[in-house]
Amino acid sequence: MKRIGILTSGGDAPGMNAAIRAVTRKAIFEGMEVYGINYGYAGLVAGDIRRLDISDVGDKIQRGGTFLYSARYPEFATEEGQLKGIEQLKKFGIEGLVVIGGDGSYHGALALTKHGFPAIGLPGTIDNDIPGTDFTIGFDTATNTVLEAVDRIRDTATSHVRTFIIEVMGRDAGDIALWAGVAGGADDIIIPEHNFDMKVVAGKIQEGRDRGKKHCLIILAEGVMGGNEFAEKLREYGNYHARVTVLGHVVRGGSPTARDRVLASKFGWRAVELLKEGKGGLCIGILDNKIVAADIVDTLENKKHRPDLELYRLNNEISL
């Protein structure tokens, strides 16, 4: 394989630029040409494609977001859109593709694979909801961003003896809420993957107040409900001086952590190794601290990401 392409799709995640850098420089080291595709699958179909050189990925490893940009392009779910994309890949002489993104991006790579075009998927999403990997690019940075906010909110919550409901991103997954909640000493963590009883939540807040506790922090995953809705339901059980903070898209931005930079670099390096071997239809992940590659069809169709619910149990038992 002499010429490969790379694109980022779906929501941006800190560390995507580090992955692009690793793919580009490893490919050039192996004597390949690398072409960057702007705006994900939309740019692929439009032919918004440019050659990348070593200098194009310089000064990028520390930057959040993606310098190849990203866009939603639901039309790529159709066969017509997929064939238009393949037509552009052939036009530029691109023989293999690295796709960095989340669930939707993976399905695009899966479609290309089924059409016989070699594609490798790299898990890039703050949500950490991709099967076949323990961690995704961007998750660690997003969790630390939430944690910094939690630590700051604790100060004001204590000063005013208030309950703070902190709504965090994650789509339908509770990983960010779970990890940031445990690390931030949250009194309660509410995630989509585990049922909760508002009466029990209220009882826990009251028990803390009866002991003289000056604050209460509840980390709420957006996949359960919005923070304001949660606060309204909580008020049915008493006045706990609840305030809501919706962290929103701030969680997606910022310079990636060392962990995300290294993880992204490992993923990108391995993707080029696989394409060099003529392999496609794979997705890369990290399981038990080892970089692995699995069949993308089997991964998407037969596997499901599940959060570490032992962390949920742990928090319930130590957040007294």
TrEMBL record:
Which residues are in the Phosphofructokinase domain? 3-275
Q: Report the top EC class in one word.
A: transferase
- Enumerate the subcellular locations listed in this protein's record, separating them with semicolons: Cytoplasm
Q: Which domain of life is it from?
A: Bacteria
Primary site of residence: cytoplasm
* Active site, renumbered: D127 (proton acceptor)
Q: Give the residues the record marks as binding substrate.
A: T125, I126, D127, R162, M169, G170, R171, E222, R243, H249, V250, V251, R252
A GO CC term?
Answer: 6-phosphofructokinase complex
Asked if the Swiss-Prot or TrEMBL record annotates the protein with the keyword Metal-binding, the reply is yes
The family database entries (Gene3D superfamilies) matched by this protein are listed as: 3.40.50.450, Phosphofructokinase domain
What the protein does? Catalyzes the phosphorylation of D-fructose 6-phosphate to fructose 1,6-bisphosphate by ATP, the first committing step of glycolysis.
Q: What is this protein's name?
A: ATP-dependent 6-phosphofructokinase
Q: Which organism is it from?
A: Vagococcus elongatus
